[in-house]
Structures are given as C-alpha cells and as structure tokens.
Write a structure and sequence with these properties.
Layout (H helix, E strand, L loop, with lengths): L4 H29 L1 E2 L10 H5 L1 H14 L1 E8 L5 H18 L3 E7 H13 L5 H10 L3 H4 L2 H19 L7 E6 L8 H14 L1 H18 L4 H7 L3 H20 L1 H4 L3 H26 L13 H15 L14 E6 H4 L4 E2 L6 E2 L2 H16 L4 E16 L8 E4 L8 H12 L3 E4 L9 H4 L3 E4 L4 E4 L6 E8 L11 E2 L1
Parallel strand pairs: 2-5, 2-8, 3-4, 3-5, 8-13, 9-14
Antiparallel strand pairs: 1-10, 6-7, 8-9, 10-13, 11-12
Helix pairs in contact: 1-18, 4-8, 5-8, 5-14, 9-10, 9-14, 10-12, 12-14, 14-15, 15-17
Length: 485
C-alpha cells in the first residue's frame, strides 16, 4: 500500500509534537536543577570556592563519578572575557582539589614546549625572553589577552608554591594543535632541526637542505595561503614525503630513546608538522567544488589534536606524579572540536569528525584493553549575548562588535528560556542526569551559534553545559590598539 502525503504529514506532526514535549520536559527539569555560578572570576583566596560551592560540588561529583582522566572545557567563542576567567577558576579547582596536572589548549604543540619549559624550570625571564614566550609559545587566541596570560602566570605561581612545599608534581601546559598553525612553519621546524642536528647530524644535514627552500616559500606569516597558492603540486608532495621521512626516522629511534623528554617532544612535534601538512592538503581539497573530493570532512586538525591528547596522557616526566598514577588532563577547546558526534556541517567542514569524538572513542578502547576506566567528561558552553572581537585573527583590524542573534530554534533559545524562568543568569546543567522524557530533545540535532557561523550538534554530545547570559570581549594585552564598532 503506497504511503500518502497526508500520512507523511501526520508522522511529521507526531514527531514535532514529541520533540516539543521533550523540549518542555527538559526546560521544566532544567529550571529546577540549574546550578548557579555566582562568580565568573578566579581569586587568590578561598572566596571563589565559597561563592561557587554548589557549582564546584556538582562539577566535582560528576567528574569523579565518571572516572574522567580528561575534562574538556568548551569555548563558545574564542577570546571571551567571562568564559576565560571562569575556565581559569575551574582549572584552579581541578588542579587544587582533584589532582589534575596538565592543562592543554588549542595552540601549536611544537611551540608550546617553550611554555612547558618555563613552567617546569621556573627561571626568571628577561623582558625580551618574556615577549618571545608570549609571541611564539602560545597562540594569539590566548596570548593576546590578559585573561589568557593570567592562566599561565597562575600556573607559575602554583608551581612555585609546590616547590616551596618540597613537592615536584608541577602543573604543566601543552598545546594540542598542528605546528605552525596558519602562519609560521619556520619556528617549529627550526626547533626540530636543533634537536636532530645535535643527535642525528648526518640525517639533519641532508633533510634540512631539502626542506629549507620549501620553508622559505611558505614564509613566516601566511604559510597556509602560500601552501595553496605558491607551492607547486610537486613541492607539496616533496614536503609531505620529507615530513614522513622525519617521523619515520624519529619513530625508529623510539625503543632506545623512549622516556627521554627532549626526544619525545621532538618526535611529537614532527608528527604535528606532518599532520599540519595533511590538514593543509585536507583544507585545499575541501575548499574545491570537485565532486571527487578525497576527504569526507575537514578533519586534519581533529586527528592532530586527538593524537596529541593521547600522547600527552602517556608522557612520563620526572616532575610528574608516579608512573603508575593515571594522568589527569584539562583541555580547553572550541565547541566545534569538543563535540562528540559526526554531522554534515557545510561544504568546507563536510562530514566533520570532531576531536572530542575521537578522544572519547580512543579512551574507551584503551580502557577496554587495559581494564582501567578512562574517559572524557565534556562541558559545553552556550552564551546569550554581549560583545566579541570581530576579526581577532588580524590584530590591527580587530573591532569590538555586538554578538549577532542566535536562531529561533537553536540551543541558545532553550537555555535562555531556562535562565528567564529560573531567574539564574549564569548556570551549569549536568544534563545527562535529566529525566528520560527529556532525552528525545537532548538527542535531537540543533544549531549552536558561533559569532559568524552556526554549527550542528545535539546537546548530549556534552555531559553537561555552562550557560553565560551576557559576555564581553577579552582584555587586550598585546599592545595593539583597537576600534569600537
């Protein structure tokens, strides 16, 4: 019997009614269970824990019950003041109360070795060294803002306090992203070259002679653009082969050098550069209209960040806790990367497989093999409105702009309704504990606003979520003047 249009329409109506009822069930539950976040800033005293006692108690219980070795803190958008200060407060709590020892963010892994060394050595820097640290050790989405620098400076203070107590379980920092990011390959490659010149001089001499002309063509400010528009196909292939050769050589030495911190960082930096080339190639293919695209989605950076998380969890440092004690890591990253399911996003993103999904599945597989539970506790981030930095990637052009409105049926609208009905402006929801009649809504794909685009996701890609009703742009700390729109 053929299916009539009226039957299809009836089924659609039933589905819409079920989704609407489930959304209302979620809102009713959320209004009663939203945990207020009283203070959005860290403090040198215990007041933060006192003011946010309910929030930290809820968060701590959820993380501990999940046996999470990785906590992901999502960024609703980069360089948001309230989000960055709240993340700082949460990190202080996780380090001081729950024993987390590694903080990681969306910055280049090779370059981040400078920040890690700074935190472990605690050597006073000259003004020039400090400028170099912020300029090259940390991506400008963090280092350009006072709030981003404050977190690193707190980690220094934390380690000094540990040293004064005679302890050596220092907190450490690690970038997770591809080396060179979109701009400069010369700096991260030169760090690799210094190490292999000292330990494998014959290999380095031949390898550097071949790669240096390609680095010159990539430049020190527009590497991504120059890869697409300056390098020939033959040069791109040569670059990929040289990076494969480097990684293969370093991996062949791992049995004899495993545990050597300089070796481990250099090898992983080489892998991060190898995956940077893969991402550039990935992006170039995804940005064409050719139906014979070689990639399903823009997943090159996701692969790099997921692999770097797993590497850092396994890395043993003399300044860390016992080899037998499970590492605990805090990851700060954008919501597009922390989400844990694949959807088709748009023509560039394609069938996007996020870092969060990869890490969750990798840890699940690792736990099953080793018999010890390791997992991810993932916290989303939604915001109501406010101001943001437009064109933040180009400091001389950046302006303060008003956050555009979300979609009427987006997740923001639901969280705003919870805020208005509960009378709580900023709150945390551990929404995986919601009643079953809310789960149709929590498993339904909706939209989440970034400032100039929207992503598709469903709420239960995160274990819980923070809602901030009104947010503002971060505080510049890079000496660049800016304009107000």
């Amino acid at each position: 019997m053929p299916v009539t249009r009226s039957a299809v329409a009836g089924a659609d109506n039933d589905t819409n009614q079920l989704l609407s009822a489930s959304r209302q069930a979620f809102i009713d539950w959320a209004v009663e269970n939203a945990i207020p976040i009283e203070r959005l800033t860290p403090t040198e005293h215990s007041d933060n824990t006192i003011h946010n006692a309910a929030f930290f108690q809820s968060l701590s219980g959820a993380i501990q019950s999940s046996s999470a070795s990785v906590v992901m803190l999502s960024e609703g958008f980069h360089n948001c003041r309230e989000m960055m200060t709240l993340h700082h407060a949460v990190i202080e709590y996780l380090v001081n109360k729950l024993g987390f020892t590694v903080v990681a963010s969306e910055s280049g892994l090779p370059e981040s070795r400078a920040i890690s060394n700074f935190l472990q050595n605690l050597r006073k820097l000259s003004c020039d060294e400090e400028d170099e640290l912020w300029a090259k050790g940390l991506n400008k989405m963090y280092s350009a803002w006072a709030e981003g620098r404050d977190l690193i400076e707190w980690m220094v203070v934390c380690n000094v306090a540990q040293l004064m107590r005679g302890r050596d379980n220092f907190v450490d920092y690690c970038g997770l992203d591809i080396g060179g990011f979109y701009s400069d390959w010369t700096h991260p490659i030169s760090m690799i070259q210094r190490y292999i010149k000292q330990h494998f001089p014959q290999f380095e001499r031949n390898w550097s002679q071949q790669i240096n002309p390609l680095l010159y063509a990539l430049g020190t400010s527009k590497a991504h653009y120059n890869y697409q528009h300056v390098l020939t196909a033959t040069e791109k292939n040569k670059l990929a082969l040289l990076l494969d050769e480097l990684v293969n050589m370093m991996s062949s030495k791992r049995d004899e050098l495993e545990g050597d911190l300089d070796f481990e960082w250099t090898r992983q930096s080489a892998i991060s550069m190898q995956l940077a080339e893969n991402y550039y190639r990935n992006y170039e293919h995804m940005s064409t209209d050719d139906i014979t695209k070689k990639y399903a989605g823009l997943n090159g950076r996701e692969i790099a960040m997921a692999n770097n998380i797993l590497w850092r969890l396994k890395l043993d440092c003399s300044t860390e806790r016992s080899r037998n004690e499970q590492k605990k890591m805090i990851v700060i990253n954008h919501v597009i990367h922390t989400k844990t399911a694949t959807q088709y996003q748009d023509e560039i993103w394609g069938h996007f497989v996020p870092m969060g999904q990869m890490v969750k599945q990798m840890l699940d597989a690792k736990s099953a093999k080793e018999g010890n539970k390791q997992t991810v506790f993932n916290i989303g981030m939604i915001y109501g409105g406010g101001t943001f930095w437009d064109k933040w990637q180009r400091p001389n052009e950046r302006t303060v702009a008003t956050i555009p409105p979300p979609k009427d049926d987006g997740l923001e609208a639901t969280m705003k309704e919870v805020s208005e009905k509960s009378g709580i402006k900023n709150f945390f929801l551990h929404w995986e504990t919601a009643p079953s009649d809310a789960f149709v809504y929590l498993h339904s794909v909706t939209t989440i606003r970034e400032n100039d685009y929207f992503i598709r996701a469903f709420p239960l890609e995160w274990n819980g979520c923070i809602y901030l009703d009104h947010v503002t742009h971060a505080t510049p700390d890079d000496g660049v003047k800016y304009r107000m729109n």
